[in-house]
Amino acid sequence: MVPAEWYLILAAAVFCIGVFGLLTRQNALLFLMSVELMLNAANINLAAFSYYWGNVTGQTFGLFVMALAAAEVAVGIGIILVLYRNFSAVDVTDATTMRW
């Protein structure tokens, strides 16, 4: 049996990679990928604790997180398409010119 600490270390590493990608990238697609990594790290934690405690509550919340991630991607792709249509690039620093 794999100890629960290993799952927590894996989730922490995936979450840190997501935060690093979110803070250092300027591409909107990479922003979305970084947020997805952070949500997957939360799902790893939910599944690990669900298995550790022997109930399915964490797995149920994991399904809700996946539904939230799908909705987030749908909205994010729409925003990225508008960015690309207006600026011919998906660089998020160009969007500051859209202010009043």
From TrEMBL:
Keyword field: Membrane, Transmembrane, Transmembrane helix, Transport
Domain of life, per lineage: Archaea
Residues annotated as signal peptide: none
GO biological process, one term: ATP synthesis coupled electron transport
Compartments, record wording: Membrane
Pfam families: Oxidored_q2 (PF00420)
Chain segments annotated as transmembrane: 6-23, 30-54, 60-84
Membrane topology: Multi-pass membrane protein
GO terms assigned for molecular function: oxidoreductase activity, acting on NAD(P)H
Protein name: NADH dehydrogenase-like complex subunit K
Organism field: Candidatus Halobonum tyrrellensis G22
